[in-house]
Amino acid sequence: MNAPALPRLAVTAGEPAGVGPELLARLAATPLAADLVAVTDRDLLARAAARCGLAIALHEDDGHGIAERPPGTLRVRHVPLGVPEAPGQPDPRNASHVLATLAEAADGCMAGRYAAVVTAPLQKASINEAGIPFSGHTEFFARRAGADVVMMLASPELRVALATTHLPLAAVPAAITREALERVLRIVHAELRAKFGIAEPRIAVLGLNPHAGENGHLGREELNVVVPLLDALRAEGLQLLGPLPADTAFVPAQRARYDAVLAMYHDQALPVLKSEAFDRTVNLTLGLPFIRTSVDHGTALDLAGTGRADPASLVAATRLAMSLVARSAALSPSPLRGEGKG
């Protein structure tokens, strides 16, 4: 009897001039039991592997399942570069290449060719300099899938979802509406159940203002928006804590009370998470019709080309994707978990 096929994961290399291609080469050298399909330029990967001193065997992806992947092997869905990369120097002429890799990964997941997508970091500025409006992976995948999504960063110790993502701080208060918060909380609640297997998720909601507004003395967003919504959702049975002051929400005694945190803006909670577990934190997009994980760091242009970039976050993102695929397959078997070749 044939062995079960490994989970097929599309892995994008991100910005060609950044550390992503080298991280992908190092990922291929690990013994992770996944069918890693690199969605990028094959020659870019070969050059990245050489800079890392790795002998990586690159094979064209034929779309069929495999039952094992020897370390040092990688299948490739070739997406050609616009121009050869210069490590550390992003070139806007490669913006279309980067977006094409994301489109292939997303469309492939929705078509059933891949079980999940794992993304290496990209350079948003380079894409915008090419004249293509672009705000990030999360927003791109949301539009591609026509889905309402939420950004979550997760480490083994802590999960943090964001009510707003890449907004200037001055624009955050106006974005904290009852409708927006309700949408986010319902997505987080549903995905904690579906993706993490938490039957009754407990979500801690941070206040927008210092001391969660201090009963209106430091801002009224909590009294006018957050508290009424939380009360309404609690009446439906959702387990919601807060609004909690952000400066005390992460102490150990508080953490034991919740399964995830909803922060009001990007830098409200992520510094806590990244300071504790930078190399073990994974960016996860909730609400998509497919699994998407990513590293929690940027392109590290100063390290690109040196072969010294640490792949720990990409490995963590891949491990989480594998875990989520396994959980999904256990609940609803799919053809991607069928019999492999050999």
Folded structure, characterized:
With 342 residues, the protein is an alpha/beta fold. The chain folds into 2 domains: 1-147 and 288-342, Isopropylmalate Dehydrogenase (3-Layer(aba) Sandwich); 149-285, Isopropylmalate Dehydrogenase (3-Layer(aba) Sandwich), CATH 3.40.718. It is 37% helix and 17% strand. The chain is built from 11 helices and 12 strands. It has helices at 20-28, 42-51, 95-111, 124-129, 137-145, 172-175, 178-196, 221-235, 252-255, 266-277, 312-331; strands at 8-12, 35-40, 57-60, 73-78, 116-119, 150-154, 159-162, 202-206, 239-244, 260-263, 282-286, 291-294. It has a 12-stranded mixed beta sheet. Helix 1 (20-28) crosses helix 2 (42-51) and helix 3 (95-111) crosses helix 5. The protein is globular, with a radius of gyration of 21 Å. Residues 334-342 have low confidence and may be disordered.
CATH superfamily of the largest domain: Isopropylmalate Dehydrogenase
Structural class of the helices, strands and pairings? alpha/beta
Main pleated sheet: 12 strands, mixed
- Dominant shape: globular
Q: Taking Cα atoms only, what radius of gyration do you get, to the nearest Å?
A: 21 Å
Cα(first) to Cα(last) distance is: 9 Å
CATH architecture of the largest domain: 3-Layer(aba) Sandwich
Count of helix runs: 11
Low-confidence stretches: 334-342
Q: For the largest beta sheet, what order do the strands appear in spatially? A: 3-4-2-1-5-12-11-6-7-10-8-9
Nearest-integer average pLDDT: 92
The percentage of residues in β strands lies in: 15-25%
Q: What is the third-level CATH name, the topology of the largest domain? A: Isopropylmalate Dehydrogenase
Percent helix range: 25-40%
Q: Secondary-structure element order, as H and E?
A: EHEHEEHEHHEEHHEHEHEHEEH
Q: Count the beta strands.
A: 12
CATH structural class of the largest domain: Alpha Beta
The number of domains is 2
